[in-house]
């Protein structure tokens, strides 16, 4: 009755083949990542220490640590996301929950999608013109952070809209039916159930804000700047700063005779910073998701 | 019952979605504390009629409404505070919707949104509504668990409890039984029989026998037109006013 016919055997064979191919592709995808991270750590190992993290670059950046660019990057990422997240999320709430389909929202939606695809160098030029020159902020942490915020905001808007749209319409209708206002519905039902998706979008922008070199190079990051070591408040908003991404670029290509371990150490720290911020957000998201309700 | 002013009085109601006219000059009245069954094939405008009454039609893009719909003496199409209007009306959708909140919070949602903060009052209301919806005994020990984890039939009763939680004077049910089993359907029908003395009930249903079992009068909608509305005995008799009604009720078309 249940004996395998040639047809079922062929089906089983193709099933196995399909699984094998998919597994292979997954491994192929993960392998380069593991190799990169492993190689980075291998090369950077001799130099990694708290001393490296907490001291400024020395001797024309051929020695010392990366305190100054590390703190600069933290400032840039935190300030840019603290600016872009509230604006982006609120704009997305408006677009998804309040806005009716008309020419205005169509243009805004189109603009969001297109801005998300604009190369970072263009954002850099915009930031230079708008914040550094027109707004008179000069090259500063503030100008650079705002430039990064402009760069990350469209993506945050797009991903937040996506997360909001994933909340079933029936939930909203059920709330409206009992006389809840739009805002009550959003606050009590829609946002609590989309916050983990919203955070995912923000998390992805952390690495973008930390990794992009061009926008900060034009608007606030400098080649070298020594700051007080170990003081997390060593930068002021109007200061120029160093940034990990630009520092990595500089010591890899602009300064001769840099010890091999130094750029690798910088890369590891850049990666570590991004991962640390991501880990925080992911922990937060896991906690939220465990309370997810449907 | 027939002597007092009607609870809902609809005059010349027309609704268009873009070019498509879905309700064509409907005039209909619903008496206080009666159960009005509304039957008709798909796309006859039944759901749209309910949406007009609680003004959720506002949220349908491209809908244009004209005519008057008096609810308890007020034209709902002119109402400024739609939220107060909606609190007067309980609405039960075809598919059960447990909000992603606890069972307690599901039922306490509407009172809370209307500003009730007192814990004791909320507890009383939740218990009363869950009892009215014949769900209390099944969930009284787990009010803190999620409403979305209940079975479909339980979620539909939860939906009814939520629809009752703001003390509505009118209860609208839109094909409440399409997603639940016959036993639960009969339980909910018993619930409705208990409620009919205290509120006006609009029962949209695609089960003509359900309308026959529950309603005092039944309206037959077809293609956005009100074919006829009459007492159940007439609609389900051998000779309703319209031949179409007879054919639909007896399964000859539709």
General description of the model:
The complex is a heterodimer of chains A (294) and B (254). The relative contact order of chain A is 0.15. The two termini of chain A are 42 Å apart. Chain A is built from twelve helices and two strands, in the order H-H-E-E-H-H-H-H-H-H-H-H-H-H. In chain A, strands 1-2 form a two-stranded antiparallel ribbon. Chain A has a single domain (66-290), classed as MetI-like (MetI-like fold, Orthogonal Bundle), CATH 1.10.3720.10. Chain A has 294 residues and is an all-alpha fold. By secondary structure, chain B is α/β, with parallel strands linked by helices. Chain B has a domain at 1-86 and 204-254: P-loop containing nucleotide triphosphate hydrolases (Rossmann fold, 3-Layer(aba) Sandwich). Chain B has helices at residues 46-53, 82-87, 103-113, 119-132, 136-139, 152-164, 182-195, 208-214, 232-235, 243-249; strands at residues 8-17, 20-30, 35-39, 63-71, 74-75, 89-92, 170-174, 200-204, 217-222, 225-231. In chain B, strand 4 (63-71) and strand 5 form a beta hairpin. Chain B is globular, with a radius of gyration of 18 Å. Chain B starts with 7 loop residues before the first strand and ends in a 5-residue tail after the last helix. The mean pLDDT of chain B is 91.
